[in-house]
Please model this.
Amino acid sequence: MNLKATRRSYLREATAMLVIARLAVRFVPATHLFAWADQQPRRMNRFAGEEAVWISWAVETIAAKPWMMCQSLPRALAAHIMLRRRGIACRLCLGVATDGEALAAHAWIELGRDAIVGGGDAPRFIRLAEFGGGAA
Model:
């Protein structure tokens, strides 16, 4: 597949997964979402570095569009879905931080020791939970 077709393919998949993730966050109980996220992929793909970069790029690109504007949890869930489909073990992490007098929450995806989706803000948050703790 050429570069343009590859980009389009990942962007289409990210769009679909972000819509599904947004609906899931709104309508599926959190206990079900996080129980699903805690499961390991059915197959393992240990050599998927390039795919993870494409997934991160596609999810962040589509989620930032004005017509999508996803928060961190749907972004992390969409990336988690896309990574698991490819057999890439990752962790969905949830954290909190104080934002003045209010609490702020954040979700991000870790692949090995690297935060790939939502990772730019992750260091200022205290990790409360992680799901799908497979080492990649």
